[in-house]
Amino acid sequence: MSASVTCIVCLEALSPPNEAWCGVCGESYHLQQRTDVPGKDCGSVWINEEHLALEFTCNNCLNPAPAGLDDVLDLDEAAAFIGYAAADLASAADRGIVRHRKTSSGIYLFVRKDLDALRP
């Protein structure tokens, strides 16, 4: 039994006539590609005039939700969130492996979604 593919935007099941893949996040989303089949759009497609190619992007990537204060973690919180030692996460940040901001007083700050790639 195969698992059904779901839309990254609305989390509903996808079917081939209205499925597209986001060029930004790589996830599947609803895109009405035919006029003879009912469907909905959870993203867009357009022609990139510079590359003369179609660009597919889901609504999550087109209109990202701004990070709230609860999504900003300091070094210790971030390390606990991903199961790293704080020193290892600081080292990864210094090497450019994970996006971060370092305040003038030396405090590392991370946005929660940027840490997802490091989670085991």
- Overall radius of gyration: 19 Å
Structural class: alpha+beta
Encode the helix/strand succession as letters.
Answer: EEEEHEHHEE
The general outline is elongated
* Fraction in helix: 10-25%
Q: Give the averaged pLDDT, no decimals.
A: 87
Summarize the biggest pleated sheet.
Answer: 3 strands, antiparallel
Structural domain tally = 2
Q: Give the spatial strand order of the biggest sheet.
A: 5-7-6
Residue ranges: pLDDT <50 for 5 or more in a row? Answer: none
Number-wise, the strands total 7
Number of helical elements: 3
Distance between the termini: 27 Å
The percentage of residues in β strands lies in: 15-25%
Can you describe what's shown?
By secondary structure, the chain is of the alpha+beta class. It folds into 2 domains: 16-62, no CATH class; 69-118. Helix content is 18%, strand content 22%. β6 and β7 (108-111) form a beta hairpin. The longest helix is centred in the last third of the chain and has 9 residues, at 86-94.
Annotation keywords:
alpha+beta, elongated, 120 residues, 3 helices, 2 domains, three-stranded antiparallel sheet, single chain
